[in-house]
Automatic annotation (TrEMBL):
InterPro entries: 6-PGluconate_DH-like_C_sf, Acid_Pase_AS, NAD(P)-bd_dom_sf, P5C_Rdtase_cat_N, P5CR-like_CS, P5CR_dimer, Pyrroline-COOH_reductase. It comes from Actinokineospora fastidiosa. Keywords: Amino-acid biosynthesis, Cytoplasm, NADP, Oxidoreductase, Proline biosynthesis. It is found in: Cytoplasm. This is Pyrroline-5-carboxylate reductase. HAMAP family: P5C_reductase. One of its GO terms (molecular function) is pyrroline-5-carboxylate reductase activity. Belongs to the pyrroline-5-carboxylate reductase family. PANTHER family: PYRROLINE-5-CARBOXYLATE REDUCTASE (PTHR11645), PYRROLINE-5-CARBOXYLATE REDUCTASE 3 (PTHR11645:SF0).
Length: 270
């Protein structure tokens, strides 16, 4: 059984550990690193998974999942440089950091897989996109797919598309939360109690997502099924189009893509 170490047990790191346990992995095959002793003790008490320092975790595990903030990557790579080799698979969940950064800083031949997850990992419904580095082969991608399938769905993409993935699905949940927030406010404006408006919209969002996932129908087809001639829905859609909501979404996601590129530029190859 592969031993997995999660380096950085924040929300995403904890969600992955929890998902792996629920998928049937033994706590004995998992470990994590955490700078704060109180947080480490809390996670061990909750999940029964042992904590370790970075060098120990790197020497013990077959797979290292790097889940630290991008600004914390340099000291972590310094710790890893002397203790990992080509037999260790490094999986990066760090937004904006290219596989080339890890390949430059770690010993030659270390396989690296870059992942862009999103926060629905916290409820087992993540969308994660994975990309291999120069030394990662199909067998490494298969390992990463198996791990991430415990917390959602997985897609393979070329690393050149990771900035677009970051903008679309990495940041995507925030767009839906923003839309739901606005719709709840609209319900309040129309005279509904906040609790009622929230219940109506959240369940409508859940139901709409289920229809998209389960029917396989194009979103246009599903929208047209709700849109009666001269009815309420078409009047609302006319206003959305008149206010440029579609164009605003396109521009917003494009801006997120550009920002993702900017974040990765300091770590591009020399």
């Amino acid at each position: 059984m592969t031993t997995v170490a999660v380096l950085g047990a924040g929300k995403i790191g904890e969600a992955l550990l929890s998902g792996l346990l629920h998928a049937g992995r033994s706590a004995d095959d998992l470990l994590f690193t955490e700078r704060h002793a109180e947080r480490a003790a809390e996670l061990t008490a909750t999940y029964g998974i042992r904590s370790a320092d970075v060098p120990t975790a790197a020497k013990t595990a077959d797979v290292l999942v790097v889940a630290v903030k991008p600004q914390d990557i340099d000291p972590l790579l310094d710790d890893l440089a002397g203790v990992v080799g080509p037999e260790t698979l490094v999986v990066s969940l760090c937004a904006g950091l290219p596989t080339a950064l890890f390949e430059r800083r770690l010993p030659h031949g270390v396989p690296v897989v870059r992942v862009m997850p999103n926060t629905p990992m916290l409820v087992g419904e993540a969308m994660s996109a994975i990309s291999p580095g120069r030394h990662a082969g199909p067998e490494h991608l298969a390992i990463v797919e198996e791990l991430l399938s415990a917390v959602g769905k997985v897609a393979r993409v070329p690393e050149s598309q990771q900035d677009a993935v970051t903008a679309l699905s990495g940041s995507g949940p925030a767009y839906f939360f923003f839309l739901v927030e606005a719709m709840i406010d609209a319900g309040i404006l129309l005279g509904l109690p906040r609790a009622v408006a929230e219940k109506l919209i959240v369940q409508s969002a859940v139901g709409a997502a289920a229809m998209l996932a389960e029917t396989g129908e194009h979103p246009v087809t599903l929208r047209e099924a709700v849109t009666s001639p001269a009815g309420t829905t078409i009047m609302a859609i006319r206003e959305l189009e008149r206010h440029g909501v579609r164009a605003a979404l396109l521009a917003a996601i494009e801006a997120a893509r550009d920002r993702s590129r900017e974040l990765g530029q300091p770590h591009d190859a020399d």
